[in-house]
Amino acid sequence: MMSSSFSTLVAATLSNEDPTPVSMHAYPSMNGRPKNGLRNAFLPPGPPAHKGKKKSSKPTDYKRKDKSLGMLCDRFLKLYSGSKAESISLDDAAHQLGVERRRVYDIVNILESVEVMSRLGKNQYKWNGFDMLKSALRRLQNEAYGRDSSRESRRGGDTRKEKSLGVLSRRFVQMFFKEESRIVTLDQAGNALVENKPNGSGKVNPKKNKSKVRRLYDIANVLTSLNLIQKIHLVDTRKPAFMWVGAGVFP
Predict the structure, then answer these.
(1) pTM of the model
(2) I need a surface site. Which of 14, 39, 45, 154 has the fewest CB within 10 A?
(3) pLDDT of 134 strictly over 50
(4) By the 8 A CB rule, do 241 and 234 touch?
(5) With 60 as the cut, is the pLDDT of residue 44 above it?
(6) How many whole angstroms separate alpha carbon 13 and alpha carbon 118?
(7) How far, CA to CA in Å, does 210 sit from each of 140, 149, 152, 186, 220?
């Protein structure tokens, strides 16, 4: 009697089991054993993995040309060309323009090379305006022809200053005075100024030349903003070049 009841209970239990077989091969395994056990198979799925590049934190309306030295110089001139302040702070200028101070420092160095601005102290400059521009260009022309070497002689032994943007800007301007056509290409200027060769002849280090041409392009952008030079394209090679226009004060 007891045996019959037990058989009936086993049959009823078997009939209520899920007939779907479970295979151990359906789970990741290592050395024939489940990696994390069956327990992880019943955990809720985690968040989906995000693949691909991270989104940029820069604003979508950022434009590289808006940060060029020429565009920044235009904005700088609008801010300070009519300024009567005794001193201009580079920190304040950088804040108003929304750029790094070094970018403003580059602009000021080039403006200082033609005496539109002059240094008062650390990060402090004076706006001279364009009244001194003609006399400054006359001095640069005299230096180019060796008639006034006092400025260059003061810098002769200082190699760090010789590499500064201001010195490079003055020498770039002087190249226009030496060219009968008053037209200079950046490659020509780079070859001449890297090794201080006045006619752009001779072999130069390509890496050094590339770096200096990049700085010359910044200088040319600022001088264009001052209307001292104008960008053109040569007819025969279609390469970009710059022509001297003199800002109406020094043709």
Answers:
(1) 0.67
(2) 45
(3) yes
(4) yes
(5) no
(6) 99
(7) 25, 29, 25, 10, 15
